[in-house]
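Ticket #4471: structure export looks truncated?
Reporter: QA, pipeline team
Priority: medium

Steps to reproduce: submit the single chain below to the structure queue and open the exported record.
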Amino acid sequence: MKTKVFFFFASLFLVSLVAQAQRGIRVGYINMDYILENVPEYQEASSQLDSKVKKWKSEIEKKIGEIEEMKKQLQNERVLLTKELIEEREEEITYEEEQIFEYQQKRFGPEGDLAIQKRQLIEPIQDQVFNAVQEISKNKKYDVVLTKKEAGVLYVADRLDMSDQVLRSITRSAKRKQINSKKEEKSFDRDEAKTVEQDKATQARQKAIDDKKAEREALIEEKAKQREEEKEARNKAFEERRQRILAERQKKKDSIAAVKAAAREKSGRPAPLTAEEKKARQEKILAERQKRKDSILQARKARKDSITAARKNKANNLPKPPEEDDNGEGGI
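Actual output as written to the record:
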């Protein structure tokens, strides 16, 4: 197929060459792969499609793994199963294999989802490329425009490459739709008036500016990293010096304590209590005080209860007063 296409374009080229030999012929070509790689919309959609393909492949691999596990399990259990069960298992495996084959064709077949979505993805870009080629060929008076890959061209000089012009035309069309102000429109018109060479020169200058900016940012980052390393080194040295001073102080303190302990031992005086011993003694004193306080409160409560009980008994033992009759006189 490629050979036929090549001969077709070669014949077209020769016919055009003979017909226009007097005035000269202008030939150009485009690299479709290069154009697609530099169209952001295509790259974004292509990335999303790649994610879908990865998911589909994962599903297929998982299902195939399950089928292989079913086969392995049947092989291990075959001697334990009846003929009917073996046939049932084999039918189930065959059914699952048919299902996964159909799913593969649905996703990756000639008319599967992948092929359809690839066509849907590339067709709008192809239309834009076709329109851009038509416009450029008319304005620049190109006689023949080939596609490098599909035409089977083995060699073409770089000066005949129209890919950047086509890509620039597509990009300009996208930018034209995004114009929201007069200022943006004037800026767009200035860019539109540039030739390809001027545009490349502008891009080269911008690249030089970007490279210089990146170099400056890298230098700033390197200096910041160096300052951070110096700061960490100072902090480390300070911490080491601090630990050394603390160790020397503790050593001196331990030495003084040892001298004092030796002097006490020599004089027969008891050693001073440690912080833990002092705390324990204080807690013991407080506990004894609380115990005495509770004992006093308990004795007071017992005495109070005894007095209250005696008063009640005394009140209960008193004689009752004589009852009065209807005339207010007491009865016998």
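Status: closed, not a bug. The export was complete when the record was re-opened. Leaving a note from the reviewer for reference: The domain at 2-47+103-191 is CATH 3.30.910.20 (Protein Binding, DinI Protein; Chain A).
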